[in-house]
Design brief:
It is a single chain. The protein is of the alpha+beta class. About 25% of the residues lie in helices and about 50% in strands. The protein has 2 helices and 4 strands, in the order αββαββ.
């Protein structure tokens, strides 16, 4: 959780987390812009402890003020 919260940028608000399995974290939140969410996801993917980030296409349907859900898998 600390890894993900440390990477939150401007325009991204995390509402809650859900731990699915060991080393798998679901992140729910709101983003002001599509670009802000894309940067947040890229920053998470660049972290050494992260194996993968799953972000469904539905996260990018609206260009502004939308909710998102991503799944982060750690190494």
């Amino acid at each position: 959780i600390n890894t993900v919260t440390g990477l939150v940028g401007a325009g991204v608000v995390i509402e809650r987390f859900n731990i699915q399995q060991e080393k798998t974290l679901e992140v729910f939140g709101l983003n002001k812009t599509r670009e802000g969410l894309q940067k947040f996801i890229k920053d998470i993917e660049a972290d050494q402890s992260v194996a993968s980030v799953d972000s469904p296409v539905s996260n990018f349907v609206k260009s502004k003020n939308s909710s998102f859900k991503i799944t982060v898998k750690f190494k």
